[in-house]
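Bumping my old thread because nobody answered last time. Still need a sequence for this structure:
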């Protein structure tokens, strides 16, 4: 009887959550497409995108600064890592010199180019930071291994001092869809996810020097399928989402969970299609976003409810009062009406 009451209460709460929560579009004077998103706190949020565009708010979204990085009009900044109202890294994607890393320490008034790729075979996808001085950036595989550069001083970037690369299978790649195909966790752990002919999660516990790979049940086998985003709740519990972006309404094998830090992954269900971004709002509430809308769970991912039809690329949060998502055509959204 007690179990029945608890289950009913959970279902009622889940229904109320999905019915009340909604995305509210922000007024931002730009038509850039955004995929990079960094939520620093309830007041400070940064995002990055096409046309060399970066946006920032320091008042919780009431006003947005639209920033154009000098001489970067042709660059697409797919990832951003911010630490406060003044400090942020941005990464642009593309073969050869199109892949670059910039940093600002004055709120975007000026930017310093810290890294420019020189290998035409290399295509950088994402960056991740443990703190303001220690970050890692990754490229798609070249000659069978993932290419990495990192900084340990917040200024210069070099390959890790290791010969133990993350080794890719033939046709394995990663997706620069939401800036979350590479994430940092804890003080020294990093996760790298893949797609294409494989759908694997690579884990490093030494900031990119060595890697171990784990197979997952996420769909794979085509150029557009695999894992697109990873989020970790803590050191052992995490989630991956993906699917096939060429078939966004297909909802098979696009969700999986780990309870052992990424060593093994168990398939989940309930998402409404391909998903390019996922975040934990707290230990119970998760949101996953994609081109045909988003889904929300109130029971740690066991069940999901569809949440709106907004075309979204990335999602990030710092608790219920600061949940944000970004998408194409200047799309910046805040999740409102979350229960307290």
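Sorry it took so long. Here it is:
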């Amino acid at each position: 009887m007690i179990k029945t009451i608890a289950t009913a209460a959970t279902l009622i709460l889940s229904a109320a959550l999905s019915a009340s929560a909604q995305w509210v579009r922000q007024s931002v004077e730009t038509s850039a497409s955004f995929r990079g998103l960094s939520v620093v706190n309830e007041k400070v949020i940064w995002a990055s995108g096409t046309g060399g565009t970066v946006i920032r708010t320091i008042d919780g979204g009431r006003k947005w600064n639209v920033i154009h990085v000098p001489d970067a009009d042709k660059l697409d900044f797919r990832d951003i890592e911010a630490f406060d109202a003044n400090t942020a890294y941005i990464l642009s994607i593309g073969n050869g010199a199109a892949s670059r890393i910039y940093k600002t320490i004055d709120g975007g008034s000026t930017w310093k180019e810290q890294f420019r790729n020189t290998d035409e075979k290399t295509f950088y996808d994402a960056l991740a930071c443990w703190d303001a001085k220690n970050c890692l950036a990754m490229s798609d595989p070249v000659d069978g291994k993932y290419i990495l550069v990192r900084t340990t001083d917040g200024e210069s970037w070099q390959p890790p001092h290791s010969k133990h690369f993350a080794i890719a299978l033939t046709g394995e790649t990663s997706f620069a869809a939401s800036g979350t195909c590479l994430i940092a966790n804890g003080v020294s752990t990093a996760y790298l996810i893949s797609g294409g002919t494989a759908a694997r999660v690579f884990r490093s516990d030494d900031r990119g020097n060595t890697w171990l790979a784990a197979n997952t049940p996420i769909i794979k086998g085509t150029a557009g399928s695999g894992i697109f985003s990873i989020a970790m709740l803590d050191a052992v519990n995490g989630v991956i989402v993906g699917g096939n972006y060429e078939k966004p309404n297909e909802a098979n094998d696009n969700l999986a969970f780990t309870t052992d830090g990424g060593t093994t992954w168990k398939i989940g269900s309930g998402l409404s299609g391909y998903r390019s971004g996922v975040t934990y709002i707290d230990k119970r509430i998760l949101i996953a976003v994609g081109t045909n809308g988003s889904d929300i769970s109130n029971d740690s991912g066991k069940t999901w409810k569809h949440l709106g039809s907004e075309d979204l690329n990335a999602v990030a949060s710092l608790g219920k009062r600061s949940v944000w998502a970004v998408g194409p055509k200047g799309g910046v959204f805040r999740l409102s009406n979350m229960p307290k």
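The chain has a mean pLDDT of 94. Let me know if any region looks off to you.
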